[in-house]
């Protein structure tokens, strides 16, 4: 961790669970994703508060987005992709929708994240767990800098238990409803098989579906 400790207020707001009663009724899987995000956000919030008390300065803030252009291996779960699809269908602003759809249509692997809009995440409330867990201290990343390699000690290391707890909230979608079942499934690495890379998604095809307002079974697009 950085020796240069500077007192600084964390930019993290106290987390709140997303609450979309109608959508969660229509799409039961949405609740599992919201639970996963809330679990992650609560843990991250507590960790950041703790780091701040120790004097560490969180560099991440709105408008800081070099990471979204540099990182080309962002792991994402199918349910998260479905959540993004829902957001694009139901909650994205018209301006962001137009920009993101254009970026999705013209996306190719190696390009930055297609959900970045004018330096900010265009899907912030449903951004993937990997984005939530990536937090950098001390100073913002330079363009093209991956601090994981250039200054590893400034990159926050999330607790594995917290990551697993958040991911396990998606298990009811796969039939693991009991806590003991979820615990065993996580131990057995059940969820790992589903992980995809954001860059490997056929975004132009997804953009076409979004443009057609296609609510056909999207599970098949995102599950192996
Ligand atoms: S990871 Fe780096 S570029 Fe991304 S928000 Fe944090 S400081 Fe900014
Ligand atoms: S989903 Fe949002 S936070 Fe994550 S890489 Fe894309 S623009 Fe950045």
Task: Give structural attributes.
single chain, 224 residues, mainly alpha, two-stranded antiparallel sheet, two-stranded antiparallel ribbon, 11 helices, globular, binds iron/sulfur cluster
Number of structural units classed as domains: 1
In angstroms, what is the radius of gyration? 18 Å
Largest sheet, spatial ordering of strands:
1-4
Mean pLDDT across all amino acids: 92
Number of helix segments? Answer: 11
Shape: globular
- Reading the helices and strands in chain order gives HHHEHHEEHHHHEHH
Number of strands: 4
Which blocks of ≥5 consecutive residues have pLDDT under 50? 1-10
Q: What proportion of the residues form beta strands (DSSP E)? A: under 5%
**Structural category:** mainly alpha
Binned, the helix content reads 40-55%
How far is it from the N-terminal to the C-terminal residue, by CA? 38 Å
Q: Largest sheet at a glance?
A: 2 strands, antiparallel
- Which ligands accompany this protein? iron/sulfur cluster
